[in-house]
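Q: Hi! Curious about what Histidine--tRNA ligase looks like structurally. Here's the sequence.
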Amino acid sequence: MSSPNKSQMVKPRLPRGFADRGPADIAATDAMLAAIRETFELYGFEAVETPFVEYTEALGKFLPDQDRPNEGVFSFQDDDESWLSLRYDLTAPLARYVAEHFDALPKPYRSYRCGWVFRNEKPGPGRFRQFMQFDADTVGSPGVAADAEAAMMLADTLERVGIARGDYVVRVNNRKVLDGVLEAIGLAGEENAARRLIVLRAIDKLDKVGPEGVAALLGPGRMDPSGDFTKGAGLAPEDIERVLAFTSAQAEHAGLTLINLREVVGTSARGAEGVEELATIAQLVGAAGYGDGRVVIDPSVVRGLEYYTGPVYEAELTFRVKDEDGRPVRFGSVAGGGRYDGLVARFRGEPVPATGFSIGVSRLLAALKALGQVREDAARGPVVVLVMDRDHVAHYQSMVAALRAAGIRAEMYMGGAGMKAQMKYADRRRAPCVVIQGSNEREAGEIQIKDLVEGAKAAAAIAGHEEWKAARPAQFSAPESELVERVREVLARH
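A: Let's find out. The predicted structure is below.
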């Protein structure tokens, strides 16, 4: 078959906003996910999985920073002309699942899910069109005890994956309190829905643009450094001051924060209800021992999604690391969620209380890497049996079979190159060791085992090539009958 000419060749390129993952990243992710799963199951949550694709109408129009119907999602038509979409989060599919199996599920229904979600948005630094989330939700629990438990479970999860106490905080607020503030400044009712959304988005950007930036977004609008202008909510100065007072109501302890919030909501019944719910959450987390700074009441947390109806919470990492230019940076939020009592009701026509949160898997893994909590050898490869004599491939294969039978990852070199290239291959495979047997070793009933991990360390300390050849670092002989035992010894060292 003739080779394709250049005009027929396809350029290998990755679509913008997507990423490939190698074995080290996959292994590190799997280890972290296992720790998260253990925490969720400790709390009595069970696994469920929903497909990547849902009917578009089932997902709803709840994406943050999206004004037009269906913007932000990848959609296509089925052969019956129904519109389907790739899920943009794991919460909307759960609402569909619960509504569809409502009578068969125990209530409250406590479940967790992990998987890829997709956003049809303009990609940028740290902003991908495909990313992984890990969610936990309680459906059917009307009281805020479920919200308090979610906040505590978030704290436990961060510590289990390797974030030390003091390096994170779980912040809790309540949308009802914000609703009370908006009601007090005249933004109640459906006719003000668009302006309320602008206010919500403005507050959600507090950590990025600061109080002055939020004030501009609450007023006439804001021009960002790139020259893009964001239209504001058009609030009067006194109303902007009241909203900012809400976001800055946090005090040195929960009791004072709640006093400040009661003043901000004034006579609003909904706002007062939200404050009392926060008081209950503070009492519950305090009774469980989490009121030591791990879980705090913080009015600046609002969350960007529209479907939240009550308590909202966010896990923020507080430690600082340095970026590539040596400047100190913080990772900020790695997880968040809240109460969404209206999502399941979209399918059933009756209120179904629910609360839950989502962990940003990639962001949390990046934080663990910055803390040195991810082992570089997490994706250690298999033991490689080198092929020194191609007339005896079957014998090499028998050695590989013996290693695998003992539960040791192993492979026989399948290429056509010589020993030097085979050693290079084993290095690239991150093999812990290689097994070598030439004709002399075979006749003597022996094998050579080279510990590549220790060999690399020793080679780094040896000055010249001749010295290296004389030392033959981390390589030893053993009877072939002791293959499994001696390889296990090497693996045990690492």
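A: A fun detail: Residues 65-69 have pLDDT under 50 and may be disordered.
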